[in-house]
Give the backbone structure.
Amino acid sequence: MSRYLHLISLLEARTLLRESFRLTYHERSAEVTQAYGYISAYPVFSRLTVPCCPVSLMDGYALRSSDTHEAGESHPVLISSFSPVHTGQQVPGGFDAVIMQEDVRIADNTHIGVLKPVRPGQHIQKTGSEMQAGRMILPAGHLITPQDIGYLLSYGIVSVPVKVIVAGLVPTGDELVEPSATPGPGEVIASNCQMMAAYFRNLGIEPIIYPNTPDDPERIRVVLDQAAGECDFIIVSGGSSTGKRDHTHAIVEEMGRIIFHGVAIRPGKTVLAGLIGEKPVFGVPGVPAGTVTALRELVTPWLAENGLTVQADQQVQVILAESIPSDPGTDDFVPLIVGRLGGRYTGISSRGSGSFVSGIRSNGILHIPRKNEGFEAGKTREVRLVPFRSHPDGMLIFSGIYDPVLGYLDQFLRAKGLSLCYLQTSQEKALYTVFKGNLHGGIIRRPCIGGHLILHPPSSFIPENACLLAIASAEYLLVSREGGDGQDLTRYRYPSLPSDSAVRIMLDAYFTTHTIDTASLQYHQDISGPEERIVAGIRNREIDAGPCSSFLARASGLLGPVIGEQSIDLVIKKEYLETEEIALLMSVIMSGEWREYIRGIPGYSAPVSGEVTVLSKETP
């Protein structure tokens, strides 16, 4: 029976798999050549910025949001300036939003009718929003897991006779390129099947990864025919949805039969299952999050019911640090970061933090049942722990600004039995987090002006009964393509930084020292930060110069004069200082060993590392 994106429940899908699929075994000689199971000896840094350009998150049309303000169902707005785009395709210049094709009516060859207004940036993934080149992916001493391999490859990192189950993994998509390549616009590195291969090796299953196969029905058919003859079951990565380039359903139905297509789970609802002869075939989304959910919630339970030894997940009771909404009718599986705060576990969703945080750092999965609309902040829920991730007992969760030194601090702490997870937010939100007491604390920067560290934002954001713990000091440069001192700074175009931002305060102080009138300078209003965006703007010649850390300048090959330094600080409630995990954190940061370690990181120093400042309304 064909179920073409007819969403069935997770329970019904598991029942159909149990009743319809039979797992076979083969004895072969297996050779281990993958990284899974090894421990990283040195930190691993991203080679790529992902995505490399603004890309569409939907199939639809790129347009100017300002042209759609008056649009409505009863009075569509006709526009002539637009460009059709597919999911993952580069958004052409001049357009600031993407509208889904369902919200558009084709008027003629040169016009479309827009049925609803869109906001700037809607359905567009910004350049580098997932990953920045030079950012730490894994620290030293990390046990590499199946998911890690997928993410490492995504960011450009290349490097016994047994009774086994053979899994055939078929990567499909015109957009796929090899890991050694640098993806161009609309291209992605083929990492999903590599990730699945590592996942199955951990279960004692031998994977066969077939060559990247374009979205061509005939070529996909040939690969599936070969896999059906060589493997015990098959998983097709990509093409499981209903777009014009999604062929998995039609091909499996032609070669065999479909068991179901569409399961009410999030992520991964487009998963399908079928048979080619007697060989089970799964179709999974081409993105890691949806694939992992399909493996964990459908494929692995089916394997366990067929006699494969699968380790049961550990579960803990967690107090939610924030409300987590969900759509009723869908079994929602939300990635969480879970840590111990005093005598309880606290957890926060990493779903909106990009695949780097949700994929690499998350150590828990919260299941929101299909009849539930989500859970409110403060509720205690049962959470499954993710194997091979840091246990909540040693996980410290902070939110606030991002700085590369945090990755080194996490690496240093792991040798002491702790792990640091940091969620990137504004400094204001970081201080609010401290005020609420939901996490271990916040992360802020303080610029050094006239020999004094200045706290921003203003005092109204300062939580009571909190203190600052200085981690390290970061040197900042005014970088440009020319680099060095002696340049005419008045002829440059600069990023338009918020007047109360720490970097802007430090830059204005530098200009004042050099008797430069900031009102006479040229500013690019569309470039206001973060530092990675400033560096990209200089490289793309959108601006001529801008401030960034010495660490980032070195990684980007840029030079410039020193304009000052900032202290990277943890903000912690005083009542938490006596907890076991925070006391250990403070002892580490206050140690001479940490100060010595900091001095070995280019661009950082330790003049105030370990110093504690009690916050008050009078804190400068």
User: Anything to note?
Assistant: The chain has 14 helices and 38 strands.
